[in-house]
Amino acid sequence: MDVILIPGFWLDASSWERVTPLIEEAGHRVNPLTLPGLESPDADRSDIGLRDHIDAVAEIIDGYPADAQLVLVAHSGGGAIAHGVADARPDRIARVVYVDAGPLGDGNAVNDQLPVVDGEIPLPAWSVFDDADLVDLDDELRAQFRERAIPEPKGVAYDPIALGDERRYDVPITIIASEFPSAALVEWIAADSPFTRELAQVKQVDYVDLPTGHWPQFTKPVQLGQAIAAAIG
Predict the structure, then answer these.
(1) What b/e readout covers 44-58, taking b as 16+ CB neighbours within 10 angstroms?
(2) How open is the CA angle 202-208-86, to the nearest 5 degrees?
(3) Is 214 strand, coil or helix?
(4) Within 10 A of 216 (CB to CB), how many other CB atoms are there?
(5) For a FRET experiment, which of 64, 76, 80, 219 has its CA 20 to 30 Å from that of 12?
(6) What is the per-residue pLDDT across 136-182, written as a single tens digit (0 to 9) for each?
């Protein structure tokens, strides 16, 4: 399989560096991405929106041979990008693996509550996050994360996603649940929670529990790599 890794907010391709060896050892080819505007702290990201990131990944997919078996792995806010790509290229994606993330419904934004500074979204103070986000993210890991963090383009967080091809529901997905257990997702689906309505439409969903905080690529990278490899099969 060719595995395309989509980072979450504030992160570039290097954020997967402790995860990729486990996927490669399972025999897969791995392509970790740095999305537009995340190339460096000085990059121009003023006009970059969610659709730009979706289109950038779709263009990368178009560069693979037509018979390539492609898997998208997406962390956090990258999940919306992966779902947008599944909508844009449903016949090219063999599976989407969501890492503490899930599919975003049409017309919704990833997070339009994040604090904007000078037209972009720098990594906020830790107090902005819930305690569950920060499980296992000790002081050393927090310092490393903040040192590598790149401001996120505002549009990626604030733009509503536009979806139009219901074949996206045919793409099998795996959710690696870290911040909260998969049993909670199942309960929210049963309760028709707005948060999980798009997920409820997906025809084939597998769940994997990896208890930790919101950044398992930092807190439990070996276990995450193993879980991704197992999900790909």
Answers:
(1) ebeebbbbbbbbbbb
(2) 35
(3) coil
(4) 27
(5) 64
(6) 999 999 999 999 999 999 999 999 999 999 999 999 999 999 999 99
Helix axes 78-88 and 50-62, enclosed angle (nearest 10)? 50
**Which pLDDT does position 22 carry in this prediction?**
98
> Is CATH 3.40.50.1820 correct for 2-232?
yes
Tokens describing residue 231: 């999900």
Convert 128-162 to b/e letters by CB count within 10 Å (16 or more is b). eeeeebbbebeeeeeeebeeebbbbbbbbbbbebe
Claim: this prediction has a pTM higher than 0.90: yes
**40: number of Cβ within 10 Å:** 9
For the record, the structure tokens of 4 come out as 């395309």
Contact 224, 100 (CB under 8 A): no
Run of H or E residues at 71: strand 70-75
- Interval 222-233: pLDDT, tens: 999 999 999 998
47: left (phi over 0), alpha (psi -120 to 50) or beta: alpha
Which phi and psi (to 5°) does residue 62 adopt? -65, -20
Amino acid at residue number 181: P
From 202, 126, 212, select the one nearest 168 (Cα to Cα).
202
